[in-house]
């Protein structure tokens, strides 16, 4: 039997309990040493104030809190703690103090001491600004010399830092009030984190124009302070509980085409039982990377061809060239493959994060001749930032491709769910360059560290690989996948590819138990909950999506699909608390719920879960369907209709 925490989010450790604090008119959550969701009434002022130590590979050193004291009053607070940040190279201790005053002022002070010699890329404060409240708003920047400039928070994703050389920043939070951030101890600058599909702008210490990494020697100290204050008339009522405890889903009148959906290939042998499950999920294509830097690329490609034929799927080829592209392509074109099997070919380079123009000029024409019906594309094997900073020439290709992972900067549950809201922004921006955007692959963890300059400690010394996340096998994984897929569909992605076929980074475990049983708790034969997202969505292949809007997109998301005379509304709870949801559906629906109570059936008796009729739910007198979603649950509500 699986413990509740394993079912919900794949780990045995309990989630941290957030503490709600007040500083005059401001409310916020205190969690694990940091302040999150700082709000003035219903208006989010800041997403997060935190501090971090980043090593030369940009890995964040884990932090342990000691000697924490919290003095909480009705409209103020005073927190002190010691924290130790340590990984295989980093070892630093912070003395921390956070003060919230009745007038709405918040001051966060940190005093750090290196406990060993180590190199750091960054050590100190980062502040996250929410996108919806800030985008387009003018920000007054005060520089270290006292001069000021005014610039807006970017609406489109800024490829480079929109704000530089900051001592203080001020921006409006209402018609007659502003927020002011004041920094001491370093110079700050701001980046648009949507480049990495983080749903925030980040103002961080130590400009990237300075040389890094920097050697800290034992005993070296770092002192920084951040102060948030409000100016103007800011008296504003707090939201009542009745305003925030229910989520309303609304529908648009338009309909959207669905993208084709594929899976990544995996080196494991696909057994008969796995083949059956994957075929039932009705994917469109199988993604395989042919990296000419790897001597065994022939075997990787041939296995993927065999797997695609076995599963009845098209092939999404990703050709990653070295410096002898003509020779490598010549060798590849000698491989026996039916050209009609190939759906798309993405041209990438091992020597550039974004496809170079010279490589496209060299190989595009012979690839088109060999695969006349395949779409040819360019882009990157890593984050959107690569193509935003260096967009490949797209005149001679058919699409742009990039990858998505929500964990470029943080790994906690809240941040991962928040970051699904940034994914559609990347598609919308990419569609300014080409209407055909391929997102491939989408994974919970990055598959590799594109910024590493040496061995990545996170992947070499832990038993479980850097690219594996235990939430893959949990209800959390299904909820995150639904929110991700909804955003990419509604933004207009043409093709999306998720995860792998089998194993700890797949959608089913396969016929062998987890290779990391103490960290990734999955049994042989297990169907991961996120499998069901694809099975239901692909049941509506060649149908339409009806755009939905959630009144609380950090709590509940929804995807509505329609095909012929049937429709489905897929609702998912993005939190570890029960949620109540309403939707304007006037028909009786049959409802299947993927939650803690159905977990074992969905994971180990999949055909029984698929074939069950589910519960009947009818609209109330207000012509609304009302749903109750347990933590991280997903509901599939189906009905017979020709319109919502």
Automatic annotation (TrEMBL):
<feature type="domain" description="D-apionate lactonase TIM barrel">
    <location>
        <begin position="262"/>
        <end position="538"/>
    </location>
</feature>
<dbReference type="Pfam" id="PF25839">
    <property type="entry name" value="Apionate_lact_C"/>
</dbReference>
<dbReference type="InterPro" id="IPR058787">
    <property type="entry name" value="ApnL_M"/>
</dbReference>
<dbReference type="Pfam" id="PF25838">
    <property type="entry name" value="Apionate_lact_M"/>
</dbReference>
<feature type="region of interest" description="Disordered">
    <location>
        <begin position="444"/>
        <end position="463"/>
    </location>
</feature>
<feature type="domain" description="D-apionate lactonase N-terminal">
    <location>
        <begin position="8"/>
        <end position="231"/>
    </location>
</feature>
<dbReference type="InterPro" id="IPR058789">
    <property type="entry name" value="ApnL_C"/>
</dbReference>
<protein>
    <submittedName>
        <fullName>Uncharacterized protein</fullName>
    </submittedName>
</protein>
<dbReference type="Pfam" id="PF25837">
    <property type="entry name" value="Apionate_lact_N"/>
</dbReference>
<dbReference type="InterPro" id="IPR058788">
    <property type="entry name" value="ApnL_N"/>
</dbReference>
<feature type="domain" description="D-apionate lactonase C-terminal">
    <location>
        <begin position="555"/>
        <end position="636"/>
    </location>
</feature>
């Amino acid at each position: 039997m699986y413990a509740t925490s394993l079912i919900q989010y794949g780990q045995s450790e309990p989630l941290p309990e957030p503490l709600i604090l007040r500083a005059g008119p401001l409310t916020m959550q205190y969690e694990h040493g940091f302040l999150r969701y700082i709000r003035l009434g219903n208006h989010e002022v800041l997403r997060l104030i935190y501090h971090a130590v980043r090593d030369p590979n940009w890995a964040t050193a884990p932090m342990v809190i000691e000697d924490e004291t919290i003095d909480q009053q009705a409209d103020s607070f005073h927190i002190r703690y010691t924290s130790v940040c340590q990984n295989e190279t980093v070892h630093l201790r912070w003395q921390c103090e956070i003060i919230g005053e009745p007038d709405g002022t918040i001051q966060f002070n940190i005093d750090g001491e290196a406990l060993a010699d180590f190199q750091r890329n960054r050590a100190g404060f980062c502040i996250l600004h929410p996108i919806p409240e800030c985008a387009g708003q003018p920000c007054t920047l005060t520089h270290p010399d006292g001069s000021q400039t005014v610039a807006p928070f970017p609406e489109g994703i800024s490829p480079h830092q929109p704000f530089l050389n900051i001592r203080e920043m001020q921006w409006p939070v209402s018609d007659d009030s502003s927020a002011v951030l004041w920094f001491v101890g370093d110079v700050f600058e701001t980046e648009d984190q949507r480049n990495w599909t983080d749903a925030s702008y980040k103002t961080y210490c130590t400009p990237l124009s300075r040389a890094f990494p920097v050697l800290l020697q034992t005993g070296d100290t770092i002192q920084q302070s951040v102060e948030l204050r409000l100016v103007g008339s800011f008296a504003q009522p707090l939201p009542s509980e009745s305003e925030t405890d229910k989520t309303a889903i609304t529908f648009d009148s338009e309909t959207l085409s669905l993208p084709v959906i594929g899976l990544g290939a995996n080196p494991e042998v696909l057994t008969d039982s796995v083949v059956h499950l994957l075929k039932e999920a009705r994917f469109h294509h199988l993604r395989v990377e042919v990296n000419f830097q790897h001597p065994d690329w022939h075997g990787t490609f041939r296995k993927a061809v065999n797997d695609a034929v076995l599963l009845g799927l098209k092939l999404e080829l990703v050709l990653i060239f070295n410096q002898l592209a003509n020779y490598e392509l010549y060798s590849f074109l000698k491989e026996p493959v039916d050209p009609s099997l190939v759906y798309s070919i993405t041209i990438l380079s091992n020597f550039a994060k974004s496809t170079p123009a010279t490589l496209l000029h060299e190989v595009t024409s012979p690839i088109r001749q060999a695969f006349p019906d395949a779409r040819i594309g360019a882009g990157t094997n890593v984050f959107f930032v690569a193509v935003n900073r260096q967009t490949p020439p797209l005149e001679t290709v058919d699409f742009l491709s990039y990858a998505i992972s929500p964990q470029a900067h943080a790994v906690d549950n809240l941040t991962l769910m928040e970051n699904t809201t940034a994914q559609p922004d990347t598609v919308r921006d990419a569609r300014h360059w080409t209407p055909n955007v391929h997102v491939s692959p989408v994974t919970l963890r990055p598959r590799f560290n594109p910024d590493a300059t040496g061995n990545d400690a996170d992947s070499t010394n832990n038993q479980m690989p850097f690219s594996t996340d235990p939430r893959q096998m949990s209800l959390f994984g299904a909820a995150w996948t639904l929110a991700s897929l909804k955003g990419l569909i509604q933004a207009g992605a043409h093709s999306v590819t998720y995860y792998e076929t089998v194993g700890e980074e797949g959608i089913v475990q396969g016929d062998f138990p987890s290779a990391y049983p103490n960290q990734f708790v999955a049994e042989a034969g297990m169907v991961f909950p996120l499998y069901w997202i694809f099975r239901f969505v692909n049941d509506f292949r060649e149908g339409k999506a009806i755009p939905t809007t959630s009144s609380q997109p950090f709590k509940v998301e929804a995807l509505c699909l329609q095909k012929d005379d049937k429709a489905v509304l897929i609702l998912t709870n993005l939190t570890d608390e029960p949620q109540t949801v309403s939707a304007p559906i006037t028909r009786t629906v049959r409802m299947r719920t993927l939650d803690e109570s159905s977990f074992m059936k969905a994971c180990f008796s999949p055909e029984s879960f698929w074939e069950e009729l589910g519960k009947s739910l009818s609209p109330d007198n207000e012509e609304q369907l009302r749903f109750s979603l347990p933590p991280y649950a997903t509901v599939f509500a189906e009905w017979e209709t020709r319109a919502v």
